[in-house]
Amino acid sequence: MCDKMLEKVRQTINSYDMLRAVERVLVGLSGGADSVSLALCLKQLGFEVCCVHVDHGLRGEESDRDREFCEEFCKQHGFELLVYSPNVKKYCEENKLSTELGARKLRYDAFEQAAYKFSCKKIATAHTLSDCLETTLLNLTRGAGVKGLSGIPPVRGRYVRPLIDCTRAEIEEFLVSLGEGYVNDSTNFVDDCSRNIIRLNVLPQLERINGGIMKSYLSTVKVLRETSGYIWNLTEGAINSAKISNNSYKADVLLGCDNFILENALSQIIKDACGESSFERIADVVNICKNGGKVTLPHDVYAENSHGILKFYKQAVKTEEFQSPLVIGENMQFFNKNLLAEKYAVEEYLKDNDNVHKKFTNYQIDYDKIKDSVFVRNRRSGDKIKLLGREFTSSVKTLFNACVTTEERGKVLFLCDSEGIIFVEGFGCADRVKCTDDTKNILEIKINVNTKLSQ
User: Fold this and answer.
1) What's the per-residue H, E or C state across the chain?
2) pLDDT in tens, 368-401
3) Which of 41, 79, 400, 436 would be a feasible disulfide site paired with 404, CB 3.0-4.6 Å?
4) Are residues 150 and 295 both part of a single domain?
5) Does this model's pTM top 0.70?
6) Residue 323 has what pLDDT?
7) Phi, psi of 28 (to 5 degrees)
8) The pLDDT of residue 360 is above 50
């Protein structure tokens, strides 16, 4: 069973071009059978495995047990491990999220931070064919197109799912063959949520009808993925043809598509704008594309067709203005972000950074070109900056219109000296303070979203 499982995982990795040979990869390790199998499979296939465990702290002693198991498991197998313990309840209260959504957001934030610390380009999660079938059935009950019926994608950006063609039964057999243990999350055995109802009640009945349902589903889902990929290529082409900016589209170009492609394109556009789509919302937006008007979408997002331009926007939320002196070498927090500015002599910087001139970026400032003291603030009306490498001065409003959402504009961080703006978060430093071959001292700026994670 061990060799058979490894070969299946190897074929999955190769089929979807998930990982390169001997690549360093981060595994999300819960301690359950799936993630334990994933870490062991990748190790045996020759990949360099690092692990991250997120202790949500929602199950008392059971959460402590899972963390301790992961620590011992990684020690035994020589895996580097990072453990994060976010305050899920507080985060959900502050951000008005359900426990499930809040925990997921914090979990993926932890994955991203661990991948950065371990220098892993890919993050492997332990989703299985059984999870994929559950997702297909869940989407079917809610109403879904081909993409939704395809379940969990094998690859999503830097996230890969090497076990996506393996069933839960195969995984448990694999661990038995190795004599490996794992832990069980007791909440998975209580049918108090939609996914558990499907797992505990619906799937057993489907297996009564067809004992080979997993094999049949694997064949079907591969066809659905191929079909979904073909449809997405057509859909993406339609979106790109109609796109004017990140939030505006030519309504007549969208209406010129076949109805099926039109609906798929609008479904993706609506998801990008507000995070949620449905057949009813798609129909509402099709209607305003044809007749003009405005509709309300979730999360206070509006879709409006004015003079043939379909726009998606939020009502502007005014953020209170602030200004604070920059403290070099100290973590400063603004708008749930950590700002750290550190000063280095170039000689000192060279010790830790090879090819220093290639590493000079628009997040590094020539410290000696700063005029007087530096302070941190958010945007002001009329702000302008000549960015590094540009021959012209841009208004910050124009910069923001291209890629910063309305609700985030008041939260973008600026650094200023006595002569004006020297740095804008997301865009970099002003040309007048750029680093050159003559630079003697560097001020390096680091900004990270603070997800209240603690190791």
Assistant:
1) CHHHHHHHHHHHHHHCCCCCCCCEEEEECCCCHHHHHHHHHHHHCCCEEEEEEECCCCCCHHHHHHHHHHHHHHHHHCCEEEEECCCHHHHHHHHCCCHHHHHHHHHHHHHHHHHHHHCCCEEECCCCHHHHHHHHHHHHHHCCCHHHHCCCCCEECCEECCCCCCCHHHHHHHHHHHCCCCCCCHHHHCCCCHHHHHHHHHHHHHHHHCCCHHHHHHHHHHHHHHHHHHHHHHHHHHHHHHEEECCEEEHHHHHCCCHHHHHHHHHHHHHHHHCCCCHHHHHHHHHHHHHCEEEEECCCEEEEEECCEEEEEECCCCCCCCEEECCCCCCEEECCEEEEEEEEEHHHHHHHCCCHHHHCCCCEEEHHHCCCCCEEECCCCCCEECECCCCCCEEHHHHHHHHCCHHHHHHCCEEEECCEEEEECCCEEEHHHCCCCCCCEEEEEEEEECCCCCC
2) 999 999 999 999 989 999 998 888 898 998 888 7
3) 400
4) no
5) no
6) 93
7) -75, 110
8) no
454 part of a folded domain: no
Q: How far apart are CA 60 and CA 63, in angstroms?
A: 5
> Any residues with CB less than 8 A from the CB of 235 and at least 6 apart, and which?
261, 264, 265, 268
The answer to whether residues 107 and 187 belong to one domain is: yes
pLDDT digits over 224-243, tens only?
Answer: 999 999 999 999 999 999 99
pLDDT in tens, 160-204: 999 999 999 999 999 999 999 999 888 777 877 888 899 999 999
Return the HEC string of 19-51.
CCCCCEEEEECCCCHHHHHHHHHHHHCCCEEEE
- Shared domain for 305 and 167, answered yes or no, is no
Within a domain: 396: yes
Residue 232 covered by a domain: no
Residue 320 banded pLDDT, cuts 50, 70, 90: confident
Which of 314, 333, 353 finishes a domain?
314
Nearest to 93, CA basis, from 103, 107, 83 = 103
Distance CA 415, CA 183 (A): 49
Considering its fold, how many domains does the chain have in total?
3
**How many other CB atoms are found less than 10 A from the CB of residue 225?**
20
Nearest Cα to Cα of residue 38 among 134, 125, 129, 118? 125
143, pLDDT greater than 90: no
Q: Residues 296, 298, 301, 306: is their CA dihedral positive or negative? A: negative
Residue at 279 is within a domain: yes
Q: Is the pLDDT of residue 290 over 90?
A: yes
Residues 295 and 327 in one domain: no
Could you tell me the residue range of the domain that residue 137 belongs to? 2-219
